[in-house]
Amino acid sequence: MKRLALIAAASASLAACAGGLDGPTVSTVGMPGALEPIHAAAFTKDQAVFWVSSNGCTRKEDLIPIVSIKGGDAIITLRRIDEDTCDKPSIRGVELKWSFEELGLAPGSPVSVNNPYQLPQT
């Protein structure tokens, strides 16, 4: 839990640099699904990792990452396309990963998040 809190804090501060705390940095009009609040996001050289809420059945296939390029930097907007109708909420949410290759990004690309942050429910 301590690791998750640290990642969430770091992610929030990174998002603030991109304007993520003031609202979306790119327009979400016309994007499929619903904008997904995230608990945390982290990026390695070639992978994007998100923690999202789950009612017990959230899978990677239930969300779609939409990559926009603004000023040469990639901005990922995570959208939920299938609702999680299960009734066993996960307090910590679930971890979902996408490789930069899946996202159409070169390894080491600068990335930010366009989603609002929501602390896990306790």
UniProtKB/TrEMBL annotation:
Alphabetic keyword roster: Signal
**Where is the secretion signal located?**
1-18
Q: Which domain of life is it from?
A: Bacteria
The name under which this protein is listed is: Lipoprotein
Source organism per UniProt: Brevundimonas aurantiaca
